[in-house]
Amino acid sequence: MVYALLSSPRSLPGSVLLSVTFGEPLRFSAPEIATLLLALLASAGLFLWRFAPILRKIIRSKKDVDFSLHPLGRRVWEFFWEVLCQAKVIKQRPAPGVAHAFVFWGFLAFALVSVNHFAVGLGIGFLSPGSVFGRLYFSFVAAWAALVAISIAGLFIRRFLVRPIWLGKKVSYESGFIAFLIFLLMVSFLGAFFATDGGIAVKTLWWTHTLALLIFLPLIPHTKHLHLVLSPLTIFLKRNGFSKIPPLSGDEDFGLVAGKDVTQLVSLQAYSCVECGRCTEHCPASNTGKVLNPKEIILGMRSYLKEFGPAAKTPLLNEARDTVANTSPDNPADNYFSMEAAFECTTCGACEFQCPVGIQHLPIIIGLRRGATNTGVWEDTYGTKLFLALEKNGNALGLSASERDKFIQKQAFPIFDGSQEYCLWLGCMGGYDPKGREIIADFARVMQYLGTTFGVLKKEKCTGDPARRLGNDLVFQTLAEAGLKAFETAKVQKIVAICPHCVRTIATDWREYGIAPEIEHHSEFMARHKARLPKQPTDDSIVYHDPCYLGRYQDIYDEPREIVSLAGTLVEAPRSHERSFCCGAGGGLVFLGEESGERVSHVRAAELAATGATTVGTACPFCNTMFRDALSAVSSTNGVAAPQLLDIAQLTARALPPIPPPTTVN
Ligand code: SF4
Ligand code: SF4
Asked: What mean pLDDT is predicted for residues 511-523?
């Protein structure tokens, strides 16, 4: 066997690697070429044999009725940013993220070298390691090989020895073996720089590298490394919009009931999960001892597809399966893929926000809820009471509409008649809940102080947010259509609301039935007018809690902080901005019964109180209601006074001079 000790300049300036040449076999015997060809065919064939059923399952899944490549520019940008730059992976977990990015970039750098590697074996190599370009390129790849080897070793140690809790208890030996193969690939490549003497060493390294590659390939489809193939596509194709709930495709579509309802995007996402556990690490339900584990929801979907396929009629959720004859005795999805888990979700969106491979948990979790609620499988006393209240009274608190009328009269709020600039949306909390009413009253004072004209709707019904998130499409549709009609009749042009859930639902979820007038959150309104709002000379330190539906859902982080900063010294909670920890109210859970495990609101309230701030600032009436009891409970446990709890409207209004309320009511 002959190896090249190429004679081109050995001392190019720069790195040590530039001064040595990559050792490459110059000739292969006919049996060697035949063996290589057979091995190549076997590896590629095995890969396809294992990958084809997965691809078939994805393709044969139901089409996504709302899928569109529009806007293409955003997709291209996200592909560049999240896939090529690995920005999300690095941002969310910097150390392992950088290690992962090195492995990914290293793979890209290796692409040409790997193709050339096999070409050399077949006698058609096109990249000469001895040429100036070859020296530069092989040295460049060698630097990456070193980085990849170090990174993969670090990731291996983290996954198999350190074992952070959110990676789960299951150990995937196949994944460990793949990590070893990647390490071997790098080491065998680097070794070839130091074995250029034409001996057996170079050939051995060449074959080691070859075999590692050929064994690696067919292992991909059945391990988490399948994300290498699928995740670029998943990120590029993911549904447009955060927590976007897709429309139902017709009268026979009730949500995710069985395999036949699983769409192509859901299948693709289920097979793309890299099992990193980022979703679980940030999930308030998982962090407070509940069954729900978003990673296991995705893996549960994958297990289901593996076991039953996309056309199956077997119910997806465990509890639903017990009610039908075709219950599988070998249920592949354990308790995690259950109705109990699905209905523990606060829809906070932390999972979807964190996922580095574009998996969108909320359409799946809410899809499962839709399947259970729309078909009557979900039976919950509180849920039933809530849906009845929404249907009968038009508000989630189940109070008579006359209660809202009395409040409007007491506050002397004008009725919107088209002459005012804004329609002030009260929402269920602002119209019926005592604390919510205080927030609305104070926000109305702020508007009056600023001289902004506003009116409220004579009749207003819930936006349908809790029905939407709990999967009751009929109730949601009725409320959305009624709301759209009310705005149209009153000729409303602009809406302002204190509740981010209302803002999100009106602006985004109602789109399925029509376009609502422009709506903004009161934090946006006040921030826009901040130059005219008083700066308060106070020692108050205020810790601001980012509501999930304002931050992650609408990317509004700065505006409420600008308002808080006018009222005191802004304090940041340990988990803030896009990493904010939920209050536990979302997804309709505020209206359901007791939580299992620790209460999410108590965990968050303790975290906020521990900052030592004198006030907790909120920007959502649901957060406010959750923290009311939670802060008292935390304070009685710790024996210290609870911080006061104020919405940003209340923080602003406390500095305003008394304003006489308008005397006329339309
Ligand atoms: S939306 Fe929030 S509560 Fe629901 S699974 Fe995701 S992280 Fe957990
Ligand atoms: S769903 Fe996403 S964040 Fe969660 S484990 Fe899978 S890849 Fe990681």
From this structure: 97
